[in-house]
Design goal:
493 residues, alpha+beta, Glutamine Phosphoribosylpyrophosphate, subunit 1, domain 1, Rossmann fold, seven-stranded antiparallel beta sheet, six-stranded antiparallel beta sheet, 20 helices, 25 strands, globular
Length: 493
């Protein structure tokens, strides 16, 4: 059955990039684990494979629960939540990024370690680009790993630190790692949040009653009635206790490189990230698209749900009516299992259906957030044509995804990215659509509020998946033979 689940999910979910995880933590609230469960539910879009919660109670110590599947299916049981007492708790939802990583419950975070000065739990959003070399070094020095996760390296580095307390040990450990990390951690009395020096992945601080919360996104603060206080700054460590908030900057200052794809797809549209409304940014992307690539047509239709704000913006700018030409089945979860090959091959149709009466004999502009492999785009186009559309024009709310992400996003190998092997015109022919246009990188930057577009000398965001310019060298991947953009030019390959 597990094999069927893997095959089936891949049949229709494989053409979207997946954020590896979301993190959430609460201090100073009775039954903190219940608040964490609500926060994780709001962050479910960032990781749907598994989730975990660790809580601390002075009389019962640390307790944890880790489960596969949705938060709603696991962390709503009263009997389970009663095993997680206390006013301090952290949680994590995840995707696995490769192979069998997702097969073992030991890979599900938060991870816990017992140190001389007490226990600590850690939940990590992102990816360590030097995890392989760190892991080899730690094993050679006697560390015994329990999981295949890169995040466990942090626990082992903390264990080997000579610093006097857990926050200082965490500082020590994080100075050794490379890549992207937003971390929510806890001791017996403290809630800790840390972002990497470039701030690639998001992390926000909230206030609820007499307590505090840390979260990947503001939408999870909303669900528990917390007030958004501020972003945790790139390279900042916040240590929250009953005495208040301590802010530390333990790393060498570097230019901020927030992930621009958070604006395009990963974050929920009702979140505020990087100081901006996600919905409004996506609407402005649609406006820029309409300015850059106008087309005469009858209807603007989003590919739901992530293409919706951009389609609204495109319609507003172009004056072409917006319409729901494709309807999403809201009750089609990722865990839906149907054992027959025939049903599995239906793929996209299980999630999306065409509004035939609306589409027939119309020239349709389809707005989607991205094209990764092109398989889903092709199937959607076929559905639109089958419904009787006269023309199909694709408008994509991100530049061509031509490079893999190594900072916490489940990206396929480069040769499987359609934009890595085809020009825009070749992609148009491959998809058999009348026109295909992507927003330019400058247009995307303008939509995020950068009026002058992208600063080519020092880009304001991490846009490696579009540009091939990696702000942090992926040392593990380079060791395995991955070639950077400039290396391809040098080699002539």
């Amino acid at each position: 059955m597990a094999l069927n689940r893997k095959i089936f999910n891949n049949s229709f979910d494989c053409d979207k990039l997946k954020e590896e995880c979301g993190v959430f933590g609460v201090l100073g609230l009775n039954d903190a684990a219940n608040f964490v469960a609500l926060g994780l539910h709001a962050l479910q879009h960032r990781g749907q494979e598994a989730g975990g919660i660790v809580a601390y109670d002075p009389s019962q110590g640390f307790n944890s629960a880790r489960r596969f599947g949705y938060v709603r299916d696991n962390f709503t049981s009263q009997s389970l939540m009663e095993t997680l007492p206390g006013s301090l708790a952290i949680g994590h939802v995840r995707y696995s990024t490769a192979g069998a990583k997702g097969a073992a419950i030991r890979d599900v975070q938060p991870f816990f370690g017992e140190f001389a000065m007490g226990g600590a739990a850690i939940a990590h959003n992102g990816n360590l680009t030097n995890a392989d070399s760190l892991r080899r070094e730690l094993i050679e020095r006697g560390s015994i790993f329990q999981s295949s996760s890169d995040s466990e390296c942090i626990i082992h580095l903390m264990a080997r630190s000579l610093q006097r307390n857990i926050p200082e040990r965490m500082e020590d450990a994080l100075r050794r790692v490379e890549g992207a990390f937003s971390i929510v951690a806890m001791t017996r009395s403290k809630l800790i949040g840390v972002r990497d020096p470039r701030g690639v992945r998001p992390l926000v601080l909230g206030k609820v009653g007499d307590g505090f919360a840390l979260s990947s996104e503001t939408c999870a603060l909303d669900i528990i009635g917390a007030e958004f206080v501020r972003d945790v700054a790139p390279g900042e460590m916040v240590v929250v206790s009953n005495n208040g908030i301590e802010s530390i900057f333990p790393f060498r200052r570097q230019n901020s490189k927030f992930c621009i794809f958070e604006h395009v797809y990963f974050s929920r549209p009702d979140s505020i990230i990087h100081g901006q409304s996600v919905y409004e940014t996506r609407r402005r992307i649609g406006v820029e698209l309409a300015k850059e690539s106008p087309i005469d047509a009858d209807l603007v239709c989003p590919v739901p749900d992530s293409g919706t704000p951009a389609a609204i913006g495109f319609s507003q700018q172009s004056g072409i009516p917006y319409a729901m030409g494709i309807i999403r089945n809201q009750y089609m979860g990722r865990t839906f299992i149907e054992p027959t090959e025939q049903i599995r091959n239906m793929g996209v149709r299980l999630k999306l259906n065409v509004n035939r009466a609306l589409i027939k004999d119309k020239r349709i502009i389809l707005v989607d957030d991205s094209v990764v492999r092109g398989t889903t785009s092709q199937k959607i186009k076929e559905m639109i044509i089958d419904a009787g559309a006269k023309e199909v024009h694709f408008r994509i709310a991100s530049p061509p995804t031509a490079w893999p992400c190594f900072y916490g996003v489940d990206t396929p190998q480069r040769e499987k990215l359609i934009a890595a092997t085809m020009t825009e015109e070749e992609m148009r022919q491959h998809l058999s659509v009348n026109t295909l246009k992507f927003i330019s990188l400058d247009g995307l930057y303008r939509a995020t509020g950068e009026k002058e577009g992208r600063d080519t000398k020092c880009p304001q965001y991490c846009d490696a998946c579009f540009s091939g310019e990696y702000p942090v060298l992926p040392s593990d991947m380079l060791e395995k033979g991955f070639k950077l953009k400039h290396a391809e030019v040098v080699d002539g390959s």
